[in-house]
């Protein structure tokens, strides 16, 4: 008998703009998060190829300019705060890259970017939008991995993210790996 966190982890999918004002939802178009077992999150962020790599806060305007009002800069800021990100990039599709998180922690100073083709990301984005509108999109999602294993985004997470040597051991343990 295995004791600990089951590999049949909980799945929650959220639209990045879900909790903000409705008039700001357009700033988050193409931005979703997938949380596994209420722990590690994977950001799915639409095209950022005009802003990196390399991934750097130098591409953001100074804080004194106020709130970000451009969707690509909002997505860049999300990437710079995310331990794991999936984003399309035709030239880098299929690759995985580590980068220094500008505001990382001592136990995890790096972020990881998983690149897809634009066509593959479009399929994932459609699936994320659909899942966010189901039980998986609720705050207290009771959806388990096995319930949605046939979905493109969960297959991607299983194969590319959880199967990657870049997946942190602490996060692997939290999803029963």
Folded structure, characterized:
The chain is an alpha/beta fold. It has one domain (11-174). Helices cover 26% and strands 19% of the residues. It has 5 helices and 6 strands, in the order βββαβββαααα. It has helices at residues 71-81, 118-132, 145-148, 152-161, 169-174, and strands spanning 11-15, 31-36, 41-45, 84-88, 96-100, 110-116. Strands 1-2-3-4-6-5 form a 6-stranded mixed beta sheet, sandwiched between helices. β2 and β3 (41-45) form a beta hairpin.
Summarize the topology.
Elements: E1 11-15, E2 31-36, E3 41-45, H1 71-81, E4 84-88, E5 96-100, E6 110-116, H2 118-132, H3 145-148, H4 152-161, H5 169-174
Parallel strand pairs: 3-4, 4-6
Antiparallel strand pairs: 1-2, 2-3, 5-6
Instruction: Compute the number of structural domains.
Output: 1
CA distance, first residue to last residue: 15 Å
Q: Any low-confidence stretches, pLDDT <50, length ≥5?
A: none
The proportion of strand residues reads: 15-25%
Major beta sheet summary: 6 strands, mixed
Order of helices and strands: EEEHEEEHHHH
Shape label: globular
Number of DSSP helices? 5
Instruction: Specify Rg, calculated over alpha carbons.
Output: 16 Å
Question: Helical percent range?
Answer: 25-40%
Number of strands: 6
For the largest sheet, list the strands in their spatial order. Answer: 1-2-3-4-6-5
Mean pLDDT: 93
Secondary structural class: alpha/beta
């Amino acid at each position: 008998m295995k004791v600990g966190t089951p590999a049949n982890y909980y799945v929650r999918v959220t639209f990045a703009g879900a909790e903000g004002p409705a008039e700001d939802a357009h700033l988050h178009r193409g931005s979703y998060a997938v949380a596994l077992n209420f722990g590690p999150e994977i950001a799915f962020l639409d095209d950022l190829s005009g802003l990196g790599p390399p991934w750097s806060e130098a591409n953001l305007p100074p804080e004194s300019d106020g709130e970000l009002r451009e969707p690509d800069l909002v997505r860049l800021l999300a990437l710079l705060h995310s331990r794991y990100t999936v984003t399309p990039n035709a030239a880098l599709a299929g690759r995985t890259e580590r980068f220094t998180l500008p505001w990382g922690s001592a136990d995890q100073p790096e972020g990881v970017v998983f690149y897809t083709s634009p066509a593959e990301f479009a399929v994932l984005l459609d699936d994320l939008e659909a899942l966010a509108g189901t039980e998986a999109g609720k705050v207290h999602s009771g959806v388990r991995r096995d319930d949605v294993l046939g979905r493109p985004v969960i297959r991607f997470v299983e194969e590319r993210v959880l199967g990657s040597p870049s997946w942190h051991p602490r996060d692997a343990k939290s999803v029963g790996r």
